[in-house]
Write a structure and sequence with these properties.
mainly alpha, 2 domains, 155 residues
Length: 155
């Protein structure tokens, strides 16, 4: 979803900038809920207030909800079908590629300077190696960014 959201709201519609979408994704990921819905609420509210937040949320939720209902209805009759299982193997691989693409594209903008790369590496280690919840990595990144700014400001 992240590359699709970014392409639509940054590249096509020019509703937010590249830097702003990174902030929106960071905030949306650090609060409970699905990142696509959280991002839609944030962007919709920013553009048109409460009515924009409601419209954006429905725009994200309804198509997915209806698609899932249709797919479940069809797949219930195909449970255990080898062809369907192989199709989902390919879908999972494509989804992983989309996640990697989003990480690479957003990483180019998010990681600025040596400190940015260091924060990213430490946050990655916190999540992957030490199994720390992503929320703590986001808090760590924010606190570190603030600390670095305060140190540089004092110089």
């Amino acid at each position: 979803m992240l590359p699709l959201i970014q392409r639509e709201v940054v590249d096509k519609r020019d509703w937010v900038t590249e830097v702003e979408i990174l902030d929106i994704f960071a905030i949306s990921q650090s609060v409970p809920g699905v990142i696509a819905i959280n991002s839609a609420i944030f962007i919709g509210n920013r553009l048109l207030g409460t009515s924009g937040a409601v419209a954006a949320t429905l725009g994200v939720v309804l198509p997915a909800f209806l698609s899932i209902i249709i797919v479940i209805t069809i797949l219930t009759g195909l449970r255990g079908n080898v062809i369907v299982e192989k199709v989902f193997t390919g879908i999972r691989a494509a989804a992983a590629a989309l996640i990697l693409l989003a990480a690479l594209k957003l990483g180019k903008t998010a990681m600025q300077g040596k400190i940015g790369y260091l924060i990213a590496v430490i946050a990655f280690g916190m999540i992957v190696i030490f199994n720390i919840h992503a929320m703590w990595a986001v808090i760590f990144g924010g606190a570190t960014g603030l600390a670095v700014w305060l140190i540089n400001k004092g110089r």
